[in-house]
Design a protein that fits this description.
Mean pLDDT: 91
Largest sheet: 6 strands, mixed
Order of helices and strands: EEEHEEHEHHHHEHEHEEHH
Number of strands: 10
Distance between the termini: 44 Å
Structural class: alpha/beta
Strand order of the largest sheet: 6-7-8-3-9-10
Low-confidence stretches: none
Length: about 260
Amino acid sequence: MIELRQLRKRFDHADHDAVGPLDLRVPPGELLALVGTSGSGKSTTLHMINRLVEPSAGSVLIDGIDISGQDPVALRRGIGFVFQAIGLFAHMSVADNIAITPRLLRWPRDEVAARVDGLLELVHLDPAIYRARMPHQLSGGQRQRAAFARALAARPRIMLMDEPFGALDPLTRDELSAEFRTIHEKLGLTSIIVTHDMTEAFLLADRIAVMRAGRLVQIGTARALLADPADEFVRQMVRMPRLRAARLARAMGEPG
């Protein structure tokens, strides 16, 4: 369970809150999408959950425990995080990238090696081929697969993802997002994904939280948001997939 209580963030020299006050609960096993336009506070909210950004007020609770009292480094080692920019260490092999956290946690060498190979197989990278490769020898999709494996290395219960598919080509993006949904369910993760793509949110998430100007406007399933949008902003957001589908159909010369 992830719970945000009256969470706020105001950056230095700003005259208004970037986020908040924000109340949000993500139950165990849920995949939640945070959506909104640029500057809506999505990424800042995500980063406060593992203390990459410290809140100005309010609290973040994981399984009922306020994380403000925890060592931030230890906290992050137990939470998977995937960035849009991927963030693999260029001077380290794929295997060494994935093994970073288990080694910091002093796992036995054989256990680390087995975990690396198991995760490479999970993200559909043949260990015999990719274990020793360097990040520059991988395609964008392969690098993101390796990044997912690294985020999962220490067996986290929570996965946070900040636009993880945004830099990928459309085919790879669709393939990886579907694969992550399978991984989420297989491992029983509690996941939050930040995206500006409402179509991606509809296809991937159990619920969607729509943010605007740092506030939570509405949260619900795709069906609920489509049936009863809270305001015109949400209405426009949830209409986008249908509008894009209609434009695509017209461009392809299809009737209707």
